[in-house]
Amino acid sequence: MDERLLEIDNVSKQFQLGSFGAGTLKQDFKSWLARIHGREDPNRKIGYDASHDGEWFTALDGVSFSADRGDALALIGRNGAGKSTMLKLISRITAPTGGEIRIHGRVASLLEVGTGFHPELTGRENIFLNGAILGMRKSEINAKLDEIIEFSEIEQFIDTPVKRYSSGMYVKLGFAVAANLAPDVLICDEVLAVGDLNFQQKCLSKMTDVARSGRAVLYVSHNMRTVTQLCNRALFLDHGHLLYDGTVERAIELYGGAGNRDVDRDLDAMPRPRKRGETMRMQHMTVLNSANMEFQQDGEWRFRITSVSNIAEQNLRLRLILLNNMLAPVAMTQTPAFEVAADERFALEISCLLDGLAPGEYTVKLSLVSDRIGGGNNYYDTIDDVGKLVIVDDPLLNQGFRWQARLWGNARMRPLEMARVEAQ
Amino acid sequence: MEAQRPKNYWTARIRPKAGWFDVDLKGLWRYKDLVWLLVKRDFTLIYKQTIIGPAWIVIQPLLTTIVFTVVFGNIAGLPTDGMPRFMFYMGGNIAWQYFANCLNRTSKTFVTHRQLFEKVYFPRLCMPLSTVLSQLINFLVQFALFIGFVIIYALRPNAVVHPNWRLILLTPVMLIQMGMLSLGCGLIVSAMTRKYRDLAILVSFCVQLWMYATPVTYPASMIAERFPELLGVYMLNPMTPLIELFRSAYLGTQSYYMNYYWLSVSITVAIFLTGVVLFSHAEKTFMDTI
Q1: A159-168, A174-183, B29-38: which is most confident
Q2: Residue B113: what pLDDT?
Q3: For A197-299, where are the E strands, in sequence order?
Q4: Among B82, B64, B24, which residue's Cα sits nearest to residue B221?
Q5: What CATH number labels A264-408?
Q6: Residue B168 CB neighbour total at 10 angstroms
Q7: Under an 8 A CB cutoff, do A95 and B49 touch?
Q8: Engineered SS bond to B275: which of A227, B131, B184, B290, CB 3.0-4.6 Å?
Q9: Residue A20 has pLDDT above 60, yes or no
């Protein structure tokens, strides 16, 4: 039973919405003066609806899970699902409003590396200060000093004030301290976004080491590739509820959404990134040759798409991008350039050949783009997730093997050509 | 879901805001190295940041003392209990400055360190505690200067400065008390900055006023002579008997107010405990509101 490092027991967190107190003594005093003189409160915002004031927003609702030695847990969910709140609770930055969190040993969080660095101090001085802030004793830091400096890859600058560091060096030093402090539970929140590729790889393997050496890692990221690389279990959070606790593959599937498999789709109503879909807008899509978006390997997908354009455009294209179940892009294809007139409603019938695509589920992303003079693209409209496309696995077409996307990827090459030759 | 485990299996149990007296002293002890490193950082920064560096620690009280001597001594002609004006003002001044600096800085704890507090957990008390300790180091430098002057004045022929050796033994108690009092007040204000962010600005003004309610630029005997009916109220200010005691010890002014000293100590302890409790209560959810 000594394996348990972390228990989250029915934890909830609520925040109070709206304004509770004006925030400064001056404003409260003015409001009070106005009230006793029967005037209108000068600090009330014009048209401000006070009906939501004092209401509570639930960021986490009765979440329970636990982590044992050797667990590398991923927390997956869309923005606002409560992932960051969960990490803040575990790292004790704020207190829960319900339930209990039990921790065995030391928790170290990499919510942001290099916290507490002072620009005037040297790298070495900052190692000590940062280590102590993260909960290390001075003797522990001393014992690990060489290891930290070596890991940081900035040995020759270690006695230079960190204000002269580049941002990359800063992150490296910060991560070196945090990664070497031997916590029992290590919390990471997308720290790998910075630093060069080599260093990112180094950080990942360090985190894997942490998990292997009998500690636990809790990892939050939107990068599903690192999640699959690092984690052996995943939790899927949605709107403050824990919906799934189990394999990484299944959690990522849930994260990607069950997927729209309708053959008739209202594109007009789908969400777009900012500024897209204003001058041109895709409106409707009808799949012509499938009832459930399932296709054979090397098959064909035919659909009709209608759009409107407010402006004339000479070199418009419809671009189609496929993303795999980790939401990494796999393939791109596009139509030849065509012309549209201002205020024209136009329909296209598209045939998309699925040659070489491996079996699996794909997310379809559609854009209307034009070639910009001098290179680059001009995006008029983009829908990140039009729906799912499924390529059915047919082992007969793969020399009798079931396709393993995790190991083999998403592209099927033609069988190797081969001839037996005389052995030397 | 909690299974049976040995009593001390869990290092930490994080629960919703518990009662008012939920002060994590054990956690603070675990982070004692951090407090020490923060003090060391403050000390290093003094050398690195300013041009005249540590000399400023010495120059600043000297300048203030000279200003006090001219303004309150020579121009206003306030009495100094028969002491040389320079010594009288210097004694009061360095003791007060220690207290005032601590209070000004600790009361801004949450505002100054917000970015850090948002990202890492450590017992928040480490911060104000380290502030008080690094101010103590500054004070000790100034204090050494003061002792130098005391020796010079005491060895003069017909010296009026007569250090009181018995009272000097109380110096550690006085320093601890000043630290506790400023820390206590600072913690109370920081806890209140949760609701009123501009309170910290008001504090430096209030500390100025407080100085005039304390016998720094005049002796308490002046109040006793001119407003004897107010003396009881006047002595409620815990800094009053403290400053008087400090000057009695090193300059040898008559200490009329020893019986009030115990009142000062009790008020200090009360403020200190209130501060620690309010601060510990505020730190748990402070990050949600600021």
Answers
A1: B29-38
A2: 86
A3: 216-220, 233-238, 241-246, 264-266, 280-287, 294-295
A4: B82
A5: 2.70.50.60
A6: 13
A7: no
A8: B184
A9: no
Q: How is residue A46 written in tokens?
A: 């014009």
Q: What is the DSSP string of B75-106?
A: IT----TTS-HHHHHHHHHHHHHHHHHHHHHH
Question: Does position B67 have pLDDT exceeding 90, yes or no?
Answer: yes
**Residue A130 burial (CB count, 10 A):** 28
Q: What distance in Å separates the CA atoms of residue B216 and residue B240, rounded to the nearest whole number? A: 9
Query: Sorting pLDDT into bands at 50, 70 and 90, what band is A38?
Result: low
Mutation target to probe the A interface, by most A beta carbons within 10 A, among B8, B9, B41, B189 is: B41
| Half-sphere CA count of B90, side-chain side, radius 13 A | 24
User: Which of A5, A29, A86, A94 should be substituted to probe chain B, the one whose Cβ sees the most B Cβ atoms within 10 Å?
Assistant: A94
Distance from CA of A199 to the nearest CA of B (A): 23
Give the model's pLDDT for residue A1.
47
Q: Please indicate if any CB of chain B lies within 8 Å of the CB of A100.
A: yes
Q: Which one, of B254, B245, B43, B250, lies nearest residue B148 by Cα?
A: B250
Residues A336-361, mean pLDDT to the nearest whole number:
92
pLDDT of residue B290: 52
d(CA A99, CA A101): 7
Cβ contact, residue pair A135, B122, below 8 Å: yes
- Give the chain B residue whose CA is nearest to the CA of A127: B37
Tell me: pLDDT of B7 over 50: yes
Angstrom CA distances, B31 to A100, A147, B38, B105, stand at 23, 22, 11, 21
Helix or strand (DSSP H, E) at A208: helix A197-212
Q: Which amino acid is it at B100?
A: A
- Per the prediction, chain A carries an average pLDDT of 83
Range with the largest mean pLDDT of A341-355, A381-395, B6-20, B190-204: A341-355
Q: Which CATH fold topology does A73-81+108-256 show? A: Rossmann fold (3.40.50)
Cβ separation A137–B33 shorter than 8 A: yes
Query: When comparing pLDDT for B77 and A256, which is higher?
Result: B77
In chain A, where does the domain assigned CATH 2.70.50.60 lie? 264-408
From CA A179, how far away is CA B1, in angstroms rounded? 31
CB A245 within 8 A of CB A77: no
State whether residue A280 is helix, strand or coil.
Answer: strand
Q: Is the pTM of this model over 0.80?
A: no
d(CA B267, CA B261): 10
pLDDT at position A23? 59
From chain B residues 17-46, the ones with a CB under 8 A of any chain A CB are 17, 30-31, 33-34, 36-38, 41, 44-45
* Placement of tokens 């309150």 in the chain: B72
The residues, any chain, with a CB within 8 Å of residue B70's CB and separated by 6 or more, are none
pLDDT at B233: 87
Q: What is the pLDDT of residues A204-243, one digit of tens each?
A: 787 788 788 888 889 887 777 778 888 889 999 888 889 8
When CB atoms are compared, the residue of A96, A132, A136 closest to B14 is: A96
If DSSP states are collapsed to H, E and C, what string results for A365-410?
EEEEEEECCCCCEEEEEEEEEEEEEEECCCHHHHCCCCCCHHHHCC
Least confident of A49-63, A127-141, A202-216, A263-277: A49-63
Query: Where in chain A do CATH 3.40.50.300 domains reside?
Result: 73-81+108-256
Residues 115-134 of B with CB under 8 A from A: 115-122
Rounded to a whole number of angstroms, the distance from the CA of B26 to the nearest CA of chain A is 13
Domain spans in chain B, listed from the N-terminal domain onward:
53-289
